[in-house]
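I am still getting used to backbone structure tokens and would like to learn alongside you. Label the sequence line and the structure token line clearly, so we can match residues to local backbone shapes. Would you write everything just below, so we can both look at the same thing?
***
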Amino acid sequence: MQIDDKYWDQRVIKRKNRKIISGASKESATYFELLNLLSLMPRDNLSLHQLMNALLNLILQITAMEAGAIYLKDDFSNTMELFVQEGFSQEYLNIMKTITIGRGFSGRAAQIGKVRVSQLRQGDPRFIRPASEREGFQCFICLPFRDDGFFEETLGILNMGSKKDVRLSTDTLSLLRLLSKQIGNKLANYKIFKLAAKRERWAEGLYSIAVEIQSLHDIPKICHVVSEEARLLFEADFCLVTITNKPSVPLTVAPAGCISQETACKLAAVFQENFREDLQAGSIIISGKMITKILNFSELKLEALCVVPVQIATNPCGFIALGYREPKNLTEEKKVLERLSNQLAAAIDNAQLYLRVQQLTAVKERNWIAREMHDSLAQELGAARLEIAKIKNHLENGQENKVFEGLSYLDNILKQTYNEVRQAILDLRIKTGTENIIEIIDTYLKDYSKKTGIALNSSLPSRLVLNPALEVQLVRILQEALTNVRKHSQADKVSVELKIDKGKIILTVKDNGCGFAVDKLPSNAAKFGLTVMQERAQAVGGKLYLSSEPGKGTEVRAEFPH
């Protein structure tokens, strides 16, 4: 057998054990082989299996025993499970697949953590099962692998039997006791390594999930991503994420793995009904027959289940459940799942906040559009209505010339109104939140110049990344400023500059039109959209500046924090 792993430093081990080894010269060579094997660091179950097989064969050589079996502690129960064996009959193995710690000769050795030797020629009442006597063993040895450091428990045990009357020397027994501790320490290192690797993988998985869900704003989508990723991360048979908006009323049920949507909904309802108070107190772990008894879901064939509540500001809003069809100790999984629950709660809270912001933004946007329509469309239509009333009077008085003049004026009003509506529709169609808002603005400016006949000079950065809210308000301010140029300035040239300067995003729109005295701004200034532009700038933490003089044009400058 060949194990391709690195060796650990042997100097400390050799120094501590030199006295014992010197008294057992016959076994010393084999003992050093054992030390070399123990120095190998198993990194997976396959290499551990190979290592234990090699250890078993060498210890059988030292002791001259005929058969041996190594058992390792089951993390889920108080038992030792058969791992590797050599020389035992199948009948023996059928009886001795499992050793209960504290019960029988081997179980007691595992409990106290000391080597036990029995001569079975005349029977031994410490053996509660007849398997060893049926094998015809005359000598039986139990070698527990105990760790007195990190775990402080017996992590495995080696049972050895011989049909010959083997008498072990004091030196050999000393070697076995020494080996017992060293193998226990190595098993502890192996478990620590495996636990550290698992925790590292879990940490990387949690980070990956957090990155994926932090940009999502759809709660069902968030739940499905968490459910799928958590099932893979924890290697579970199924994962279920349930979020509620009211007690006992599931809002989102997201299953993954060996569970259908229908069964998931039933399971969610059972948890909401029977475990609401338990989940308010914290996470719960259910195992074995209790799952079928409590949940009455025998079709899932579960052996282990961990359920962790999801809480937003201490208010329960759902749970995450992991299910396994094999017995499993879920203590470590529960701790990590609780961290994932916190990430899910934060993502849901952000999604709800985002939805509320979107709703408020939509309300504000509707109000701004309503005011803009009142300032332009409503006033134009009001003027048209007054002109129609005048035309009626002219008809009643037989003033045909004035009727035609009124109709011509009315036609101009309707054309202007049509153009206003058409331009407003085009403005609202501009899509923000795209990969490069600069391309959108540049296309809009070219289209504006072409349709209005106003020469436009622009200075734009090649690329600018803004948050969605700022993008919307910047574009709307630009549109309103250019609308004022078209309607009121009588300008034939306009310049648009967008730049980043000293940590600020600055938008400047300047025309060569008639201008006006800012300090003598008429009371109907809202007609020029100035109030709306100011409110839009303030909504995203910006400011609006206006400068103008009669005959010298107008400049509108908006500044936003970057």
Observations:
- DSSP finds 16 helices and 16 strands in the chain.
- The two ends are 65 Å apart (CA to CA).
- The first helix runs from residue 11 to 22.
- Residues 213-345 form a domain with the Beta-Lactamase fold (CATH 3.30.450.40).
